[in-house]
Each structure stands twice: as structure tokens, then as C-alpha cells.
Automatic annotation (TrEMBL):
<protein>
    <submittedName>
        <fullName>S41 family peptidase</fullName>
    </submittedName>
</protein>
<keyword id="KW-0732">Signal</keyword>
<dbReference type="InterPro" id="IPR029045">
    <property type="entry name" value="ClpP/crotonase-like_dom_sf"/>
</dbReference>
<dbReference type="InterPro" id="IPR005151">
    <property type="entry name" value="Tail-specific_protease"/>
</dbReference>
<dbReference type="Pfam" id="PF03572">
    <property type="entry name" value="Peptidase_S41"/>
</dbReference>
<feature type="domain" description="Tail specific protease">
    <location>
        <begin position="259"/>
        <end position="471"/>
    </location>
</feature>
<feature type="signal peptide">
    <location>
        <begin position="1"/>
        <end position="18"/>
    </location>
</feature>
Length: 492
């Protein structure tokens, strides 16, 4: 059960609070930024699984560099957009999607945001995804802006403040932010851009920045492959089954839908064994609990068969939990939450981690080292055993968005244990070896610190390693119809 919860984003330090009063002067915004970056740094130092990690001796220097960058920006802050950008600069310097500082509430008014009338998308280069009438044509390549190549502009204006430019999938996710103006005082929004159309023509119009519309926000979601289907199983073509998994942080209805999908596969297994293909759609999925993909994979390929392969995959992986008071309180809270939800397996998992962390604290140890899953691999995990269901060998296509990380990546780890699985879409994002996050409110009530509580030692998927697609979809459009056409073409 090592990966039962890849990310559980829950505030543990304070109870829910009303929206605090916002600073009202430039000096107050500056002081808030300085205070929250200093506090976020301290919470990270006191609780982050990497702060005492002997495998990563450069961690503390990197954290200190993030603190210095954040404070340097904070000293220049005069308003809410500057406050947000300073915190983003701190987080971007850490360069880990599972750590940093996140703002709370709506500090930036949506009606204060601007755009130039079009939305960009990354498809191994920068293109116009959608455009208002009179704007650059859809599909045109964005060559440069204000003399800077598009790639350099993304590095300076986007990845310096959000996302992680060293991960391929993050380019697919973050490129749309280049043409959104949220008032960041530390960057200059593009003024003129060179657009190249497929017929070889180029134009360099001045950009007309104006208030961002609801249409702009809708197109922004489409540019990265938003979820189009709720959790569930459909059959868009005879014998082609579409499994939508847009979240691994399900609500009550979605948890029931996940269980219904797995049960349908078990009960109607003979039909699934004759399927033309299974499509697992991860668009919209930003992680959560790995138990939901595990339950479906067990139903599809066989639970015991899946477990043997996972044991072999994880045989050399050991999990270390940072034994801090805040992390202990988090796992005790999770235990109670799972009691209330009736999730007995998850409750036992959380209780075991809480007990291990408490014992490590009592012994003066910095980590609780969980060895329960290590060295359990059996001989020839690929071989079938008596009692296994008939092997599922039909094609499985997994739609991967660029933002797939955390429990979404754990799902890919599982699905790719079987040779009939092919990944479709974009490169994924990546995880560091620091996982299982919680959040802790900062004193001013404007932000919270994201804290990874555990680290993996010996995980087969390396620190920062992405999944590349077996079948890339590089067209500007990323809707269900485009994926359906691409997948159906594989069988011809």
C-alpha cells in the first residue's frame, strides 16, 4: 500500500478561517510578502521530507536560494499582484511540484486580468490555439515576441514564476500563461509578436491587451486538454470502451462511480476480453489517491497478477516519512477522515504511518522508515498462476495530459507494467522523490505552505523523470473526437 495516497492536500495546522482582511498599503503588501516567504521557508525546513535527506545534500542550499530569491522579490512588492508573484518566484526556484507556497482565496480579481484576444498552446513549439475574430489565425506558429524567441520568452515570463521548465509536460501545461496578464510587476508582457502561417507567410502585429473574458478562460482549459467526461465508463463505438478518470481526489459520487466501473469489468469480464480497445482518459487528472487507478487496474488485468508485478517493480523501494509534529498530526487527521468516509483500507494505512512517525519521534529519529513493501518480489512475476483470471491482452490506450503528475504518474507506472498499454497525447510532468503532501496555513491567512511528508529511496521512476507518449497527438485541437480518430486509426 505504499502508493495508496500519492498526494493528500489537506490543511492541518489551523481550522478553516474566513477570508482575512487584505493589506491596504504598498508597505503592508511588502511586509506580508516578506513575512509569508520567511514563514513558508521555516515550515518547509521543519517538516519537508527532503530537509534532512542524506541522499540529497544539495537540498538545503536550494531551499536557501529559493528563500533569497523570494525575499528579493518581496522587497519590491507594492500590491496584490506583486505579493502573488513574489511567492511564485520562491516556489518556482524550489522547482518541485510538491513544495512551495500557494495563495489562498482570490487575491487577484478576475476582472483585472488581461489577454490579447488569443490563447497559445505548446505542441513541441508555440502555436495559436484559439483566437477572436481579427486575431492571429488558429494554428499559426508564434515565432517570437519583442525580438525574443518564443521558447526564451516562456522561460523568462512563465517558468521563472510558475511551472518547471525542465519537465517536458510542463511546456504543454504552462505555455497558455504567456498571454495572460495578471499584473506581475517583475515581467514585461509581449507587445508585438511574429506569427507564421502554414503557407509560409509572416505577420508582426501589435498586441491589443484587454480585459480577459470567459471565452478566454474556456479556451485556456482546452489548450491543455481539459476533462470532457465525468468519472465513468462509456462505449462510444461498439466494443471500444472509454474509461474517464479525470480526478483521483473523488467526491462521494465519483467514488461510487469508480467502484461501479471496476465492478462492471469484473462482472462482464468476458465481454471486455473481446474489446477492440480500452481507452483510459486521464485528462483533467492532477493526482490524488492511487487507490482508484489500482482498483480499476486490478479488475482489468487481475488483482493478484497486478500485485505480483507491482511488488517486483517496487522491490527495492523504501519509503521514509519525516518525523515532525506537524506531519504526525496530518496522518492522525487522515485516519479520522477515513473513519468518517468508511474507507477501512485507507484508515489502516494512515494509522500505520501515524504510529510509525510517533515511534520515530519517541526514539529521536528524523524519519520513520517504512519497509513493509520492500523485497517482496517473487520469482517470475510475469508468469500467470493458478487462480488468475484469463489474461487481458486487448489494446489499452492511456490519454496523458502534460500536467499528469503524482498519483496520475503512479497510474502510468501501473498501467505500463502490462505490454498491451500505450500512452497517447503529451509528455507527462514529473515528480521528485518527495511525495505525500499536506498544506499548512501561514500566519497572515493569505497563503499556505505545501509540505511533502515522505521520500522514496530506490524508486524505479527517477527524480524528474517524465513519460513520453508512445503515440503523440500534436494537433492544436485536443478534444475527445481527435483522440477517438487517432486511436481508431491504430487498428487499421
Amino acid at each position: 500500500m505504499k502508493r495508496l495516497l500519492a498526494i493528500a492536500l489537506v490543511a492541518t495546522a489551523t481550522a478553516a478561517q474566513a477570508q482575512p482582511d487584505l493589506p491596504t498599503t504598498p508597505a503592508a503588501w511588502r511586509d506580508a510578502a516578506l513575512r509569508d516567504i520567511a514563514a513558508g521557508y521555516q515550515v518547509t525546513l521543519d517538516n519537508h521530507a527532503g530537509a534532512l535527506d542524506p541522499h540529497n545534500p544539495g537540498f538545503l542550499a536550494n531551499l536557501e536560494a529559493a528563500r533569497e530569491r523570494g525575499l528579493a522579490l518581496a522587497r519590491q512588492v507594492k500590491d496584490a499582484p506583486g505579493y502573488v508573484a513574489a511567492l511564485q518566484g520562491f516556489t518556482a526556484r524550489i522547482n518541485d511540484g510538491h513544495a512551495g507556497i500557494a495563495t489562498k482565496g482570490k487575491l487577484l480579481a478576475p476582472d483585472a486580468q488581461r489577454w490579447p484576444g488569443f490563447v497559445a498552446a505548446w505542441r513541441e513549439d508555440l502555436y495559436v490555439y484559439a483566437s477572436e475574430p481579427g486575431g492571429p489565425p488558429v494554428g499559426a506558429r508564434i515565432v517570437s515576441c519583442d525580438g525574443k524567441p518564443a521558447k526564451r520568452l516562456l522561460e523568462d515570463n512563465v517558468f521563472a514564476f510558475e511551472g518547471r521548465g525542465n519537465e517536458a509536460g510542463q511546456w504543454w501545461t504552462s505555455a497558455r500563461e504567456l498571454f495572460v496578464d495578471r499584473g506581475n510587476p517583475f515581467i514585461q508582457v509581449p507587445r508585438r509578436c511574429v506569427f507564421a502561417t502554414t503557407d509560409g507567410k509572416q505577420a508582426e502585429p501589435a498586441l491589443d491587451w484587454r480585459p480577459r473574458t470567459e471565452q478566454a478562460r474556456e479556451w485556456s482549459g482546452g489548450a491543455v486538454g481539459m476533462a470532457e467526461l465525468p468519472v465513468g465508463l462509456t462505449e462510444p463505438r461498439p466494443n471500444l470502451f472509454w474509461v474517464a478518470m479525470p480526478t483521483f481526489k473523488p467526491n462521494d459520487g465519483e467514488r461510487a462511480a469508480y467502484r461501479a466501473m471496476a465492478e462492471r469489468v469484473r462482472q462482464d469480464r468476458a465481454r471486455f476480453l473481446q474489446a477492440a480497445a480500452i481507452v483510459i482518459d486521464l485528462r483533467g487528472n492532477h493526482g490524488g489517491a492511487s487507490m482508484w487507478s489500482e482498483e480499476f487496474a486490478g479488475a482489468l488485468w487481475g488483482e493478484a497478477r497486478l500485485q505480483r508485478r507491482r511488488d517486483a517493480y517496487d522491490a527495492n523501494t523504501v519509503t521514509w516519512y519525516r518525523a515532525s509534529p506537524g506531519n504526525l498530526a496530518h496522518f492522525r487527521m487522515l485516519e479520522q477522515r477515513f473513519v468518517q468516509q468508511g474507507e477501512k483500507k485507507a484508515q489502516a494505512w494512515a494509522a500505520a504511518r501515524a504510529a510509525g512517525i510517533a515511534a520515530a519521534q519517541a526514539a529521536g529519529q528524523p524519519y520513520y522508515i517504512d519497509r513493509e513493501d520492500a523485497a517482496r518480489a517473487t520469482a517470475d512475476p510475469q508468469a500467470d498462476r493458478p487462480g488468475d483470471p484469463p489474461p487481458f491482452t486487448r489494446p489499452v490506450y492511456v490519454i496523458v495530459p502534460g500536467y499528469c503528475a503524482s498519483a496520475c504518474l503512479d497510474a502510468l507506472d501501473m498501467f505500463k507494467l502490462f505490454p498491451n498499454t500505450r500512452l497517447v497525447g503529451a509528455p507527462s510532468s514529473a515528480d521528485s522523490t518527495y511525495m505525500e503532501v499536506r498544506s499548512q496555513d501561514l500566519p497572515g491567512g493569505l497563503a499556505r505552505t505545501i509540505v511533502p511528508t515522505k521520500l522514496y529511496v530506490g524508486r524505479p521512476r527517477g527524480n524528474g523523470q517524465v513519460y513520453q507518449p508512445d503515440i503523440a497527438l500534436r494537433s492544436v485541437e485536443w478534444g475527445t473526437a481527435e483522440f477517438l480518430r487517432l486511436i481508431e486509426a491504430q487498428g487499421k
